[in-house]
Each structure stands twice: as structure tokens, then as C-alpha cells.
């Protein structure tokens, strides 16, 4: 019988498969997607947040455990498990040699991403290059890989894993199993159910775009929860960014981000501002704007800038709507002209003189305006004006399965002996809400490796058990 | 087509009240522009080569920028395999292919004299081999009419068949024309892309860096040293190595010929030269290296991933590889067969191959080395200028 079955084909699944194989287990990996779409959301990632006490190859200075933990504590608002978070953080400090051994290359930070030069190690070529490297290494080591094999359900004997049933009805037995098949972000129905109907009678999630893979339907997550596995997290919590409204429904990835929010104002479809655009540095704020836009009528926002902002942010993938007057821009964006112009003029009038510095929390702020803009507030008065429509873009959902140090699936608070989970399917243990760049890959790598090791161990125990 | 483009440009200029306008992009150029807009919003591939760092210095991509970037691209394939937006994604990003298509077009557009640019399109494997064969056959017929094609008493001295001055008269004009045509073409390219690449003149450090990038084929190292891609997403050093064999083999053969020319004119030492003379010490390893390199490149070319580059240019690539192989193989055969009755025959084949190589030089794959070197020089200049984009890195 097969030793270890890995369900999923992203970073966490590959880490698990590689570790289990290195531990001597026979491994079969089932990827739901065809080969060209393999890798789940990992193909859209770009870096790993790494703890380090001294400069290391591509990482500058130091990023000690405590600082990493405080960052995580801040973004999650305390909805995290300190023990598992610290385990993740420590694992991020010593996994990169192993990653290199399996063909991952690191590079200094990309232009336009120097703000994470100290904390994040970038994958050369991005996440798809990493996924390619892991698949090559896995195949070389003898991991069997099957594409286009989505799993429908898991067969359990009490809390013991027995087999999986693929969507096509095939039953695959193994001595142990790692579930790493992603969240449920691609499942529109489930998102609709989770987000429900708002006070305006809208179904907000109908207007969400999915930044990542179309294959994360959450089938396995749902079947595990139904089978009694302990869940963790809130189904509406997710990594959610405001992205260009013209982005494709799936797989828009990094390039659909609109990075000019802090350089201008954002209005909703009524032409009103709704949040402080200059609250903090954009890299620390981009991940809250998805939710902010999701709460607006029609789940749409409009980022408005003028000529002064051009060249100061990552160039957007689609050209903006442009006009030489604010009224014209409002009309072109389909906004109520008068209300929009009033909003911008009120903002312009509230901007206090200061010395603009986008690299610091500068003193350009509004006064007497609600909501205020607390930094980088400069009048929008230099044509041409640009507008970008924004929609919520979901990267991945946080609802998952509860785990312990061994990454074991739990039933009624007790760990299963031979069933493990890694990646998005358990990221909610560490990330209750919020996000900070590169932490998803840190969780996936840490728990993928743990789950693989534990699954190989469990398979060996099963063998001894059977022999006895 | 070019005329049409010029007319459109004039019309657009008139419509704009005579202001300077951005030249109209061709479909292939517009495709590079479209893809660069996507890449510039992503930038994951920045570590692979020179194209992406050059891209990040721009927010818009005009004709000159696109010509420059297209020639900077080495078609290594790394960005295609790493691309989250590669087909079947609806963004359909395939930078190596888009760049190759424009690159092929720049060879045609910058060809001198312009009328001969169309030769690039027709230049292919069949044409190359037919030309070499035809020329060889012509020489064979001439020699056969003389009755010395097989077993003539030449004693290894082929000047008895083709007097030295006849050979010089045949080859020098063709070779000099090739040099002239390529120089004129690349000069115009340089003038067009210079304003788009910082405008500055070449400095010694920039020249040194670009020369090193050319001689080491730096941008086939993948940015990490494991090499570039060929048939799949695995990295290989073989493309770089076989190109080195080809390039340095070619240089050694060229050096051998140059030394022999000096011997002839300066010292009156007349060919054939035997080992351990300098022309042979350069020529024999050069010929062997060229054979190994071109055989390897041929094999790799046939194995290339179907999405790499522009399939329409494969015949041109293979034609050039075949002529280089034929030239080196026939040259070595000529040397080894110098004492046999086959000498005259081998000589005709070798001369036919060399003549075909020279004749196709300015309108074939050889141009890639010239234009890419120019692009690398401009890149080395440009990167030393302050970045025109004030992208803040908070």
C-alpha cells in the first residue's frame, strides 16, 4: 500500500511530499488542476517572510522572532495562536537551505518592493518558478504526481484516515495523508453563503474577484468539517485586496493591484470618501482595502489621483480613466458628477500645507474633514486626472482545520493519528484575520514540511502496527 | 508596408497639428507594449536578465523602447516558464515570443540597403544549403571542365586550382559588403534607440560591462547561474556552452584566416600552412569547436519548447547553424584530405559553403550578435543614468 498520499499541488503540498519522500516514504500527490495550472495560489506568490538575527544572502539587517511576532500580532488583532505562530516564525529562519536544495532560487527584492528587503526573501521568477522547481525535484526523487485528480471526500475509520475518493470515483488508500488543497476562495456559492446578504439587500461576494486559482473549491475542507474535524477561523475572513475592477475573475494575481490609493482619494459609487487613505504606508494597508471596498454599496470604489502621482507607484496593469477636469472624470467613471466634484473640492480645501514625502509618514494632512486623510494629503488639482475602479480581490480564505505542532487534523480536540493538514487549509490557526506580505508562504512551508515528516512517521507506525 | 507606415505617421503628424508624435506601432510592437505593461505591474522576473530591469525604468513603451528591449532579450525562456500569466491565462504573456517577433522585424527594418531587408524573411535552411550547394557545384563544374576535379596533381596546393588573387577577388568584396551592410544597419538602430536609453555616449565602464556580458553570454545564465531553459522548465547550461563553442570556434577560424592573410601579404608565406603553424593552431581547434557548437545548437534548437521564440524564424536559425557547420566540417575535411585525390572536390565544397555563409551573413541569424551587442551596450549606458521614474519605495 502507498505510504503517504498528498492532496493538493501548491507550496504546502509539495513541501509535504518532498519531506515525506526524503524520509523514505512512497508518495503520491494528487493535483486537482491540469499541469498548466498546477501550484494553486503558490504560483502567484513572490516571497517568504523570514526571521533572521543577522544579514543573510538576500536579507538585510535582522528580523528577530519577537519583531516578527509583534507584526503578526498587530495585523491579526490578536486572533492568532501564539505557539503555532512562533513555531512558524522559527521555521522560517532555517528552511531556505532546504528550499535551495530543491531548486528554489532567491533574489534581492524587486524594484518597488524595497520596503520588505529586510523581512522578505524573494523567489527568483516568483512562485511559479518555485512550484516548477519543487515539482521537478519531487519527480526526480520518485514522488508520483497525478494531475486533474480532484478529491471528493475522505474515508475515515473513526479518526483514522483510510482512503480518499476522487471526483471520478476512484478510491485511493494510503497509510497516511496530508491535506493541502487550499481554501474555498474559488467557490462562489460558498462565498455567497459565508458573506450573506447585507443591509442594502446585496450579496457582496457576487462582486468579488478571485486573485488566485480557480481550483480551490473547498470540497475537501467542507467534507472534513462535515466529517467532524475541528474547524478554525471565520468564513468571511480572507486575504483581500482592492484590485482593478477590470481584472479577470480568476488568476489576476499581483499585477491587478492598484497602488495609488495613498497618493489620492478613494470614493464610493455615490462619490463619497469612506476611509483615511493615508493612514499608514501602503504596504501596511493594502490588505485592508479589499474589505473596505466590500463594505461599500455595489462593492466598488474609485481611486482618484492627479498628474503629480504618476511615476510614484507601481504602474497599474490597465490604463486608468483620464480626464482634464474633475467633472469630466466623474462622468467617465459613471459617478454622480456633482457629488464627486464636491467631495474632491472639499478634500482639496481641507489639505493643510506640508512637505510631501511619500517615503515617510509626512505632515501633509487634512483638517476638519471626515474621514480625514492623515498623511500624503495633497490637493488633487493638476490635470490630467486619473481614476481606477476598484473591486475586492480575494487571495485566500482563512476558514480551516485546527492543528497542533504536528499539523494533525483534530476531531473533538484530539489529534488524528495519520491525517495531517497544511497550507491555506490550516493557515487560519495563525492568521485569524489581516495579512502581512510573505506570511502565507511561511505558514505553508513550515506546516507543509511538518505534515510531510509526520505523515511519513505515521505511515511507518502503521506498517509496524500491521506487522504486529 | 514600410511606406504605408510612413504615410500613416505623416497623416497622424498632420492631425496633431505638426507636433512630434509617437511613431505608429506595428502589431508585433503593440503586442510587446501590451505585455510589458503587464510585466511592469508584476516584475517577478526582474532577476533573470537585463530586459526586466530596463523595463522598470519606463512607464510607457514607445517604438524605440520596444526595439531596444526586443534586442536585449536573449530568448532564454526563463520568464515564460515562471510566468503566472503565460498561456492559457487570458493575459497570454509570452515575452520571449513577442520579443523574438519584433526582433525579427527590426532586422528587416534596419537592413541596409533597405530593399534587401526582405532577404531575412526568405533566408532559411533550404536557401542556405541550396546556395552553398549551388556555389560548390558551380566551382566543381569549372574545375571539372579543366579536368582536375578528381585526383589532379595538386600536391596539396589549391592555389593551382584557384589562384590566390581569384579567391581574394571572389571573397573580399562579399565579406566587405557584409561588414558594410551590418555596420550601416546597426548604426541606424543605435541612433534610433539612443534617445530612448538615456541618450548618453558610451563610457569605458559601460563598454567593459557590455563586452563581458557578450563574451560570457551572461544572460543565458538564468540570473542564478544554473542556466536557461530549452525544452521545459528545467534549467540547462548546454545552450550557453554550445553557443560558446560556436562563437569562440568562429572567432578562432576568423583569426586563423586573418593571420594567414597577414602571412601572405606581409611575409609572402603562401598557404597551405601545416601544423604547428599559427593559422593551423588557430584553425583546427576553431573548426572542431565550431562543429561541436553548431551540432549542439542544432540539436537544442530542434528540442526547444514550442512556445519559445518565433517559430517563423527557425528556418533562419537552422540555415545559419547549418552553414557554419558545413563551413567548419568542409574546412577540416579539406585539411585532412589534402593529400588525397578528393582535394579539388573538397575545396569546391568548402569554398561554396564559405561563400554562401558570407553572402547570407548580413541578412541572416548572424545579425543577432550585432544588434544584441548594441542593445547590451545601450543597456550598460542606460543603467548608469539616474532612473527617470520616481517610484517611491516606502
Give the end-to-end Cα distance of chain A, rounded to a whole number of Å: 16 Å
CATH class type of the largest domain in chain A: Alpha Beta
* Share in β-strands of chain A: 15-25%
Average pLDDT for all residues of chain B: 90
**Biggest sheet layout of chain B:** 2 strands, antiparallel
Number of domain modules of chain A: 2
How are strands sequenced across the largest beta sheet of chain B?
1-2
CATH architecture of the largest domain in chain A: 3-Layer(bba) Sandwich
Shape by Cα distribution of chain A: elongated
Give me the secondary-structure category of chain B.
mainly alpha
Per the CATH scheme, the topology name of the largest domain in chain A is FAD/NAD(P)-binding domain
Number of strands of chain A: 20
Fraction of helical residues of chain B: 55-70%
Low-confidence stretches of chain A: none
CATH H-level superfamily title of the largest domain in chain A: FAD/NAD(P)-binding domain
Outline type of chain B: elongated
Number of domains of chain B: 2
Number of helices in the DSSP assignment of chain A: 12
**Oligomer status:** heterodimer
* Alpha-carbon Rg of chain A, integer: 23 Å
Instruction: Kindly report the greatest chain-chain contact and the residue count on each side.
Output: A-B, 46 and 36 residues
Amino acid at each position: 500500500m502507498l505510504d503517504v498520499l498528498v492532496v493538493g499541488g501548491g507550496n504546502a503540498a509539495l513541501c509535504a511530499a518532498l519531506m515525506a519522500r526524503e524520509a523514505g516514504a512512497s508518495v503520491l500527490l494528487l493535483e486537482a488542476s491540469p499541469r498548466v495550472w498546477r501550484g494553486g495560489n503558490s504560483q502567484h506568490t513572490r516571497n517568504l517572510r523570514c526571521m533572521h538575527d543577522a544579514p543573510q544572502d538576500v536579507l538585510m539587517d535582522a528580523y528577530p522572532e519577537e519583531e516578527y511576532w509583534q507584526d503578526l500580532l498587530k495585523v491579526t488583532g490578536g486572533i492568532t495562536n501564539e505557539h503555532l505562530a512562533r513555531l512558524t516564525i522559527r521555521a522560517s529562519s532555517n528552511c531556505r537551505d532546504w528550499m535551495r536544495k530543491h531548486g528554489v532560487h532567491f533574489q534581492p527584492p524587486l524594484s518597488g518592493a524595497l520596503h520588505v528587503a529586510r523581512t522578505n526573501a524573494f523567489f527568483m521568477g516568483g512562485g511559479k518558478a518555485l512550484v516548477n522547481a519543487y515539482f521537478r525535484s519531487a519527480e526526480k526523487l520518485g514522488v508520483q504526481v497525478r494531475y486533474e485528480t480532484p478529491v471528493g471526500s475522505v474515508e475515515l475509520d473513526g479518526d483514522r484516515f483510510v482512503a480518499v475518493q476522487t471526483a471520478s470515483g476512484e478510491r485511493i488508500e494510503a497509510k497516511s495523508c496530508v491535506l493541502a488543497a487550499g481554501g474555498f476562495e474559488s467557490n462562489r456559492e460558498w462565498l455567497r453563503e459565508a458573506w450573506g446578504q447585507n443591509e442594502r439587500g446585496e450579496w457582496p461576494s457576487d462582486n468579488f474577484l478571485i486573485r488566485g486559482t480557480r481550483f480551490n473549491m473547498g470540497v475537501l475542507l467542507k467534507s472534513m468539517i462535515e466529517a467532524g474535524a475541528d474547524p478554525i477561523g471565520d468564513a468571511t475572513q480572507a486575504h483581500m485586496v482592492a484590485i482593478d475592477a477590470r481584472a479577470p475573475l480568476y488568476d489576476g494575481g499581483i499585477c491587478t493591484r492598484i497602488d495609488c490609493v495613498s497618493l489620492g482619494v478613494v470614493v464610493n459609487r455615490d462619490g463619497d470618501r469612506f476611509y483615511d487613505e493615508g493612514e499608514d504606508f501602503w504596504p501596511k494597508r493594502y490588505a485592508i482595502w479589499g474589505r473596505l471596498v466590500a463594505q461599500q454599496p455595489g462593492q466598488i470604489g474609485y481611486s482618484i489621483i492627479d498628474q503629480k502621482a504618476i511615476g510614484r507607484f507601481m504602474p497599474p496593469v490597465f490604463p486608468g480613466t483620464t480626464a482634464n477636469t474633475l467633472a469630466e472624470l466623474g462622468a467617465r467613471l459613471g459617478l454622480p458628477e456633482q457629488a464627486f466634484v464636491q467631495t474632491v473640492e472639499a478634500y482639496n480645501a481641507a489639505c493643510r500645507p506640508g512637505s510631501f514625502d511619500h517615503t515617510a509618514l509626512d505632515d501633509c494632512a487634512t483638517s476638519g474633514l471626515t474621514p480625514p486623510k492623515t498623511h500624503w494629503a495633497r490637493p488633487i488639482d493638476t490635470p490630467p486626472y486619473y481614476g481606477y475602479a476598484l473591486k475586492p480581490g480575494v487571495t485566500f480564505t482563512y476558514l480551516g482545520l485546527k492543528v497542533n505542532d504536528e499539523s494533525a487534523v483534530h476531531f473533538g480536540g484530539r489529534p488524528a493519528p495519520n491525517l495531517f493538514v497544511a497550507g491555506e487549509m490550516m493557515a487560519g490557526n495563525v492568521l485569524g484575520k489581516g495579512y502581512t506580505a510573505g506570511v502565507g508562504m511561511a505558514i505553508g512551508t513550515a506546516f507543509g514540511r511538518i505534515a510531510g515528516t509526520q505523515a511519513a512517521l505515521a505511515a511507518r507506525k502503521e506498517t509496524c502496527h500491521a506487522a504486529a | 508596408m514600410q511606406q504605408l507606415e510612413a504615410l500613416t505617421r505623416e497623416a497622424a503628424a498632420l492631425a496633431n497639428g505638426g507636433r512630434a508624435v509617437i511613431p505608429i506601432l506595428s502589431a508585433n510592437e503593440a503586442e510587446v507594449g501590451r505585455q510589458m505593461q503587464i510585466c511592469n505591474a508584476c516584475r517577478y522576473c526582474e532577476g533573470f536578465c537585463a530586459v526586466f530591469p530596463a523595463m522598470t525604468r519606463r512607464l510607457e513603451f514607445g517604438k524605440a523602447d520596444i526595439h531596444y528591449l526586443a534586442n536585449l532579450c536573449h530568448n532564454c525562456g526563463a520568464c515564460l516558464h515562471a510566468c503566472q500569466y503565460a498561456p492559457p491565462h487570458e493575459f497570454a504573456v509570452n515575452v520571449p515570443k513577442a520579443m523574438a517577433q519584433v526582433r525579427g522585424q527590426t532586422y528587416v527594418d534596419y537592413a541596409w540597403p533597405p530593399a534587401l531587408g526582405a532577404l531575412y524573411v526568405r533566408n532559411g535552411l533550404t536557401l542556405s544549403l541550396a546556395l552553398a550547394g549551388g556555389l560548390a557545384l558551380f566551382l566543381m563544374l569549372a574545375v571539372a571542365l579543366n579536368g582536375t576535379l578528381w585526383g589532379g596533381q595538386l600536391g596539396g596546393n589549391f592555389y593551382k586550382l584557384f589562384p590566390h588573387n581569384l579567391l581574394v577577388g571572389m571573397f573580399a568584396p562579399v565579406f566587405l559588403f557584409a561588414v558594410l551592410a551590418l555596420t550601416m544597419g546597426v548604426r541606424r538602430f543605435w541612433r534610433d534607440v539612443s534617445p530612448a536609453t538615456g541618450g548618453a555616449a558610451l563610457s569605458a565602464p559601460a563598454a567593459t560591462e557590455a563586452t563581458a556580458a557578450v563574451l560570457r553570454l551572461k544572460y543565458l545564465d538564468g540570473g542564478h547561474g544554473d542556466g536557461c531553459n530549452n525544452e521545459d522548465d528545467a534549467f540547462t547550461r548546454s545552450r550557453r556552452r554550445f553557443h560558446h563553442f560556436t562563437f569562440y570556434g568562429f572567432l578562432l577560424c576568423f583569426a586563423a584566416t586573418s593571420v594567414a592573410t597577414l602571412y601572405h601579404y606581409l611575409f609572402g608565406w603562401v598557404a597551405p600552412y601545416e601544423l604547428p603553424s599559427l593559422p593551423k593552431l588557430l584553425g583546427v581547434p576553431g573548426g572542431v569547436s565550431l562543429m561541436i557548437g553548431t551540432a549542439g545548437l542544432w540539436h537544442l534548437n530542434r528540442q526547444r519548447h514550442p512556445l519559445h521564440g518565433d517559430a517563423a524564424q527557425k528556418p533562419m536559425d537552422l540555415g545559419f547553424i547549418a552553414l557554419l557547420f558545413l563551413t567548419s566540417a568542409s574546412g577540416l575535411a579539406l585539411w585532412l584530405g589534402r593529400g588525397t585525390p578528393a582535394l579539388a572536390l573538397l575545396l569546391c565544397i568548402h569554398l561554396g559553403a564559405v561563400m554562401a555563409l558570407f553572402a547570407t551573413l548580413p541578412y541572416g541569424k548572424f545579425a543577432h550578435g550585432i544588434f544584441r551587442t548594441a542593445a547590451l551596450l545601450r543597456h550598460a549606458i542606460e543603467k548608469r543614468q539616474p532612473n527617470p521614474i520616481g517610484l517611491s519605495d516606502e
